[in-house]
Design goal:
By secondary structure, the protein is of the alpha+beta class. 37% of the residues lie in helices and 14% in strands. The protein folds into 2 domains: 284 residues, no CATH class; 230 residues, Gamma-glutamyltranspeptidase, small (S) subunit (Glutamine Phosphoribosylpyrophosphate, subunit 1, domain 1, 4-Layer Sandwich), CATH 3.60.20. It has a 7-stranded antiparallel sheet with strand order 6-3-2-10-9-1-18. A 6-stranded antiparallel sheet has the order 7-8-11-12-16-17. Strands 13-14-15 form a 3-stranded mixed sheet, with no helix packed on it. It is globular and about 60 Å long.
């Protein structure tokens, strides 16, 4: 009887062990590397759209690496997220291999050969605002397709056609739009109708509603040409002819030669350290990388962790750092192929320390007294960013844009893609603010073949030789400060990736001399303390849409998809 009982107990223990093992396999292996806290082992994609994120993960599952997935996501976003995803725009890529190799790719748009510095001014020399914002003349030469081709040729594993094919299907078969997208399309109907007299898939007779199918057959044909012909499928042949015809229709100046001559450029990454973490980010013509490193160096000497998240001391320090960095941006930043940007001088420890020495804890600085420093300036909120990591640990951070929401508002007839309005990112008139309040100088004046200054700030952090974080965001002038705050939220304030992304934000950019604050970002006591010192706060809507990935100490990937949009983290 006793032996029978022991046998039963042993059997129950074996069964219990079997159940535990089974449950573990379900969590760790049966669900493709996901653990029970929503983290993933084999890879992750975080982007502005769930469909695009899933396209990227599908590529990872097929054996593709992070760059393969990035190419597929870029093209998918051009279909399912047309307000910022694009083939008619441009952007930047930061890459870090599993072995620690780093690189950056500049596929920013360029001014056409016929561009000139006064092309958006009236006879009195004043900016004609709409001229650089809407219509064919607002467009720079697109770089996205060239960028993806260049990235794939250098680092890709899978066949090019396999990466573009999902977007061909999405364009031809259609996808169900979200409530947010329906609202955007309805709100912009008049603009689309006016700027596209020959019609566009983005306009229909009745109102758009959540769940409606958006089918883009003209875009599908263009995607098919890119799938079959690569770079030539976009920059030459039928698509190039369609672009030039569109230019002629609306007074634009992009030519076949502009398209054929466009080249994406590999640039030397900017690298720095923050509290023991290696920071890799984008060099000019992104202003974001230099600014991010300056900001991190500005606050590193101070005990932010002790002070706490969004306390008065923390906020004041960050505002004063931002004020000085954006003043530098206005004077010193531009396309390095046209202007000698003092990169090392701006990031030097001594220079940053000197810049911060003038700030007074007792009262706010004024932007009038903080000019750009002497050393030995803009895109819209509808940029988009995505972060990707693969099973081996290769990481990609890409920020890409049309500039304004839906770019110039012009869909190239017979090619189906939106033109960018990136020419507004130049200093249309040096010293005058652009549409987002950013002031630029001679360094960012318009010139033929020049790349316009950008705030895009894709970044990758590592610790002790191992990947730690992939981060970036849209948001125009708020991009830099949103990435800055997200990094601090994790490194200094011990937030999870999702909480760091979702946390309420604030933003200061030197001019105008006020601080933009999301609702409930600061408690009333903090606000009153800072107002008493002379800080002016202006309430505004969402700041940024950060999409980021954190590698935990257990080796899992933890996604942060911004709740300010339809963003989604998908892993396996």
């Amino acid at each position: 009887m006793q032996r029978t009982t022991k046998a039963k107990n042993l059997g129950l223990k074996s069964l219990s062990l079997l159940v535990i093992v089974t449950l573990f396999l379900c969590c760790a292996g049966g669900h493709l590397g996901k653990n029970n806290s929503g983290q993933f082992k084999n890879g992750m994609v975080v982007s502005a759209n769930e469909i695009a994120s899933q396209v990227g993960v599908d590529i990872l599952k097929k054996g593709g690496n992070a760059v393969d997935a990035a190419v597929a996501v870029q093209f998918a976003l051009a279909v399912v997220y047309p307000n910022a995803g694009n083939i008619g725009g441009g952007g930047f890529m930061v890459y870090r291999s599993a072995k620690g190799e780093v690189n950056t790719l500049d596929f920013r748009e360029k001014a056409p050969a016929k561009a000139n510095r006064d092309m958006y001014l009236d006879t009195l020399g004043n900016p004609i605002v709409d001229k650089s914002l809407y219509g064919q003349l607002a467009a720079g030469v697109p770089g996205s397709v060239a960028g993806m081709v260049e990235a794939h040729q250098k680092y890709g594993k899978l066949k090019w056609a396999d990466l573009v094919a999902p977007s061909v299907a999405l364009a031809n078969n259609g996808f169900k739009i979200s409530a947010r997208q329906a609202s955007e399309l309805n709100g912009l109907k008049n603009r689309f109708t006016k700027l596209n007299p020959l019609g566009t898939a983005l306009v229909k007779d009745t109102k758009w509603a959540e769940g409606d199918l958006l089918t883009q057959t003209e875009l599908g044909k263009t995607m098919k040409r890119i799938e079959e012909q690569g770079r030539a499928g976009f920059y030459e042949g039928t698509v190039a002819e369609a672009v030039v015809t569109e230019m002629n229709r609306g007074g634009g100046i992009i030519t076949k030669e502009d398209l054929k001559n466009y080249q994406a450029i590999w640039r030397k990454p900017l690298q720095s350290k923050y509290r023991g973490f290696d920071v890799v980010t984008m060099p000019p013509p992104s202003s974001g990388g230099i600014a991010l490193i300056q900001l991190l160096k500005s606050v590193e000497p101070y005990p932010l962790k002790k002070w706490g998240f969004n306390t008065d001391s923390t906020v004041q320090l960050m505002i004063e750092a931002e004020r000085r960095v954006y003043a530098d941006r206005a004077k010193h930043l531009g396309d390095p192929d046209f202007y000698k940007v003092p990169v090392e001088g701006l990031m030097a420890d001594a220079y940053v320390k000197k810049r911060m020495a003038s700030f007074n804890w007792e009262k706010a600085s004024t932007s009038a007294e903080i000019s750009a420093g002497e050393v030995a300036p803009a895109e819209h909120e509808e940029t988009t960013h995505f972060s990707i990591v693969d099973k081996e640990g290769n990481a990609v951070a890409i920020t890409t844009t049309l500039n304004g929401s839906y770019g110039a508002g012009v869909v190239v007839k017979d090619a189906g893609f939106l033109l960018n309005n990136e020419m507004d990112d130049f200093s249309v008139k040096p010293g005058s603010p652009n549409m987002y309040g950013l002031v630029g100088g001679e360094a960012n004046a318009i010139a033929p073949g020049k790349r316009m200054l950008s705030s895009m700030t894709p970044a990758i952090l590592a610790k002790d030789g191992d990947l730690y974080m992939i981060v970036g965001t849209p948001g125009g002038s708020t991009i830099i400060t949103s990435v800055f705050q997200t990094i601090l939220n994790v490194v200094d304030f011990d937030m999870s990736m999702q909480n760091a992304v979702a946390a309420k934000k604030f933003h200061h950019q030197w001019l105008p001399d006020d601080v933009a604050v999301e609702t409930n970002a600061l408690d009333s006591l903090t606000s009153e303390k800072l107002k008493a010192k002379g800080y002016k706060f202006v309430s505004r809507g969402a700041i940024g849409r950060v999409d980021a990935i954190l590698k935990t100490k257990w080796g899992y990937y933890q996604g942060g998809a911004d709740p300010r949009g339809d963003d989604k983290a998908v892993g396996w």
